[in-house]
Amino acid sequence: MFKTLFSPICINQTKIKNRIVYPSMGLLYSWNGELNDRYFHYYIEKAQGGAGIVTVGPVGVDTLGLGTAGLSIANDQAIPSFYKLTKAIQRAGAKAWIQLFHGGAYVRPIQIGDQQALAPSSIYSEWSKAQAREMTRDDIHDIQEAFVNSAERAKWAGFDGVEIIASAGYLICQFLSPLRNQRTDEYGGSFENRIRFVKEIIEKMRLRLGTDYPITIRMAGNDFVPGSNTDLETPEFARVYEKAGIDAINVTGGWHETNVPQMTMSVPQGAFTYLAQNIKNVVSIPVMASNRISEPWLAEKIIHDGWADMVSLGRVLMADPYWPQKAQAGHPEQITPCVACLQGCMDEIVNMKPVKCMVNARLGFEGERRIARTDRSKRVMVVGAGPGGMEAAFRAAQAGHQVELYEKADRIGGQLWIAGAPPYKQELLKLIPYYQEMLKHHKVQVFLNTEVDIKLVKQRSPEYLIAAEGAEAVTPAIDGFDDSRIISAWDILKHNIALGKKIAVIGGGAVGLETAHFIAAQGTITPETLHFLFSNNAESPERLRQLIFQGNKKVTVFEMMPQVGKGIGKSSKWGLLSSLRKYGVNINTGATVHSFHNGILNYELAGERRSESFDNIINATGSQSLRKLANALEETRIPFAIIGDSLHPGQIIDAIHQAYQAVMDHL
C-alpha cells in the first residue's frame, strides 16, 4: 500500500529498513542528565512500533549548553547507560541515532542557575528571556571539541549515527544568523565566517569518527524570523554541510521564536515539505522532510514524488508509536491521530514539565500504564460518547470485557463536534472516525439517542459503570440574559446558528475566543478561492489579504479578567490571538457586563459605564459538570467511576487520560 515509504535506504554505509524517522524531541523525563527507565521504555516502544530510525535526544554536549533539563553525554560515565539503550533499540528493529545539542542563548536561567548562557554575541533572547555572554575563541573551540568528543562517546555507546542540531534557533543557528551573530572576527560577518563554526565541527567529527560512520544534521529550512536566514540562503548551508562530510540532512521549519506557526493545527499537512525539496535540489545525500506529516498517504506521496527521501514523524509517533506497523499492515484507519493540539507535548515543555500526549495516555508512562487482558470478562456500561467515554469503552473492550456505550445524541463524539468547529480546529474531528473504528474493531455495542437513567442501569445490570456525562453551559446572573438574542457559544459552534452583523461574545476564555474566531471568519474566502484568484492575477495581493480576513461580522469580546485565553496552552494562544487581530476582533479585558435589554449591552470598562448595541450576544462564560446519573448511582451497589467533564470541566487530554486509567485501575 505504501511501497516507497517502506522501502530501504542507505545513509552512508548504514541500511535503514524504511523511510520513517522518529526525530529528537524534548521530553524532560530527567533533571540530572541521565537516562532512566522512563526514557528506556519510551524509546524502545518507538522502535517496536516500526520506525526505521529512532533518534535519542536532544542530548547535551556540555553542561552549559543544556543545563539540567534533559540528557547529557558530556562525559564518559554516560556511555554504559546509552549503550544499554542503543542495544535495546536495535533489538527492537530500528537504527539508533543520537542528536547532539547545544542551546546557546536559548538555554533558560532556570536550567543553569547562576551561570550565564553562551552565544555568538551578547544579545537578549526572546525565547529564554535572558542575555547571553559572548563566546570567546576559547569558548568556541571548547564547544566544538565538546561536540566531537560527544560524537565519539555516541559511537562507543553503539549508536548507528549522530545528528548535529542546527535548527530551531539553537547555538549553531545563532552563529549562522546575521541577526544573532554580530561578531567581527573569523566567526562572524560574511557567510563563510558565520558557517565556519559548524563547518569545523563537521570536519573534525568526520576525521575522528571515520569515513563510514553516519553523520547527519537537522537544519532550519527557513528561520522565519525577520532579518535572519530564509530559504534563499539555506541551500548554500546544505552545500557546505555535504562537502564537509554530512551524510543526510533533516530539514525542519523555523525558530522557536518565529511568528509563523510551525506545528499547530493552523499549519496545513506537509506545509513545510517545500523546504526539504529546496535542500534536496542542491545536494546528492538523503534529505528528510519534517513538520505536520500525519497521514501515511502524505508520507508516501512526499517520498514518491521526490520532495524528500525520508520523513520525520515526531509528535505523530508520540500519538501512536505503532503508526509504521499499522500503515504497513494496511490499517491506517486504526492509527491514533495526532491532532496537533500541542497540549501535552509543546505546552508541557514550555512550562518545563515532562511531556505527555492528549490522545495517548501511555506516552511517558509506557512502563507503568498497561491495560492487561482480563481473566474474567465483565459487563461494562459506559455512559456518554464524548472523548472520555469513547476511550473508556474501547479500552475496556480491548481488555476483554463486554461493553455497551450509551449516548443521548444521535452520533458519537460529544463536545469534539464543538471543539472542532472553529477555524483551524478541524483536526480534532479526526478523533471521531478513529474512535468509531476502534469501537467497531473491538465489538463495542453503541446505543445512540438513548438517555440513561437509573431504571435503565438496573435493567442492564452492569458489573461496572463509567459515567462520562460531560458538562453544560452556565448562564451568568446578568440582567436580561433570558433574551432570545442571547445564544450559547456551544450552540453556535454545534449548529452554526445564523447571526446578525454585530456580535458580542461574553467570556474570553478558550471557548469564547474560539467562538469569536468562528464567527469572525464567516464571509471570508476559502483557501481554494484564494488560490484561484491569486493564480489568475484576479485581485491585488492587498485585496486578497483583505478578502481572507474581512468577513461579514463585527465581533467584540468582553472578559472580566485582566487577560484573555484562560485554558489555552502557550504554544497555541499566541497564534489564536494573532489570528483574532487579523480578523479585526475587538477584545475588551477588565470588562464587567451588567445587562442586556432591547439590543443594548450595558457594561463597565476602565471604571466607566458604557452602552452599545449588538444584534446577538454569545454566552461563553463557562460550564458546569453534569452528574445526573452519577449522583443517582450512589444509591446502587454498582461499582462506578466518573471521568471527564462530569468529574470536573477540563480539557480533552484530561478526559482521555482519566478514561484510560479508570479501565486500567478498575477493570
Summarize the structure.
The chain is α/β, with parallel strands linked by helices.
Question: What can you see in these coordinates?
Answer:
The chain has 24 helices and 30 strands. It is of the alpha/beta class. It has three domains: 9-350, Alpha-Beta Barrel (TIM Barrel); 379-471 and 625-666, Rossmann fold; 475-621, 3-Layer(bba) Sandwich (FAD/NAD(P)-binding domain). Strands 3-4-6-11-12-13-14-15 form an eight-stranded parallel β-barrel, surrounded by seven helices. Strands 18-17-16-19-30 form a five-stranded parallel sheet. Strands 21-28-22-23-24 form a five-stranded parallel sheet. Helix 14 (387-398) packs parallel to helix 16 (431-441). 51% of the residues are buried. The model has no long low-confidence stretch (mean pLDDT 95).
| Count of alpha and pi helical runs | 24
**Estimated radius of gyration:** 27 Å
- CATH hierarchy, class of the largest domain: Alpha Beta
How widely separated are the two ends? 37 Å
Structural class: alpha/beta
- CATH architecture type of the largest domain: Alpha-Beta Barrel
Q: Which outline best applies? A: globular
Uncertain regions: pLDDT < 50 for 5+ in a row?
A: none
Largest sheet, in brief, is: 8 strands, parallel, barrel
Strand portion: 15-25%
Q: What name is given to the CATH topology of the largest domain?
A: TIM Barrel
